[in-house]
Amino acid sequence: MQPNTGFGLGTEEVKRRHILPKALIVGLVAGLIASAFRVALQTVEQGRITWLTGLPWAGRLAVAVGVGVAGGALGLWLVRRFAPETAGSGIPHLKSVVLGERVLNWRRVLPVKFFAGLASIGGGMALGREGPTVQMGGATGLMVAGWFRVKAGEGERKALISAGAGAGLAAAFNAPLAGMIFVLEELQGNFTPVVFVAAFLASVTADVVGRVLTGEMPVFALGALPPPTLAVLPVALVLGLGAGLGGVIFNRSLLGSLDLFDRLRAWPAWAVGALAGGVVGLASGFFPVLAGGGGALAEQALSGAIALRWLPLLLLARFALTMISYGSGAAGGIFAPLLVIGAFGGLATGGLAHAVAPALAPHPAIFAVLGMGALFTAIVRAPLTGIVLMIELTGKYDFMLPLLVSCLAAYGVAEALNDKPIYEALRERSSVTK
Question: E-assigned strands of 186-261?
Answer without folding.
Answer: none
